[in-house]
Design goal:
About 15% of the residues lie in helices and about 35% in strands. By secondary structure, the chain is an alpha+beta fold.
Length: about 170
């Protein structure tokens, strides 16, 4: 959803609140595409502070279906997004100009691009379905949370292969 901010940017000391909808249906990144299963409309607050700065503030909750990093079962991950952006309207070298922001095109704010950036920054390093997730068997692919497999799970250290051969030849040692 795009929000036109021409009236806020052109009027000094103007403050408005707009209710916005999130149109994103999924979060796509290099990691894959993940469906957004729950989203809610939220209020964004805009304030022009003396034609110097534009404040953009808001808060929302999203739930995204993400596969567990160990067992690959889909799990819901809640994202609490707090948006607090300060945009420089003067175009000085220290601040970010409007054309340098990926979520601003001219005087319109792309809410979905803003949300995308906030999700990307808050994306967890590891997603687990539960803390004690056992994962999947490396050999047969069985989900070890649901069933036990008969595969041998201990893998000998390849550096100790010569000693293992000696033990296999001489069982009585």
């Amino acid at each position: 959803m795009k929000v036109d901010l021409a009236d806020v940017i052109s009027s000094e000391d103007l403050e408005i609140t707009k209710n916005v909808e999130i149109e994103l249906d999924s979060f796509a990144s290099r990691l894959g595409q993940f469906p957004i299963v729950k989203k809610a409309p939220f209020a964004l607050y805009f304030a022009n502070e003396g034609n110097q700065r534009l404040l953009v503030q808001g808060e929302t909750e999203l739930t995204i279906a993400v596969p567990c990093d160990r067992c690959l079962e889909e799990t819901s991950r809640a994202f609490h997004l707090v948006i607090d952006k300060e945009i420089d309207l003067t175009g000085s070298k220290e601040g970010m100009r409007l054309e340098e922001l990926d979520f601003m095109t001219g005087t319109s704010l792309d809410v979905d691009q803003l949300i995308f950036g906030e999700i990307l920054v808050g994306w967890p390093m590891k997603v687990l379905c539960r803390e004690d997730c056992k994962g999947i068997c490396k050999k047969c692919g069985t989900n070890l949370n649901l069933a036990e497999c008969q595969c041998q799970r201990t893998e000998p250290d390849p550096r100790m292969a010569a000693i293992q051969d000696i033990f296999n030849k001489f069982k009585e040692v």
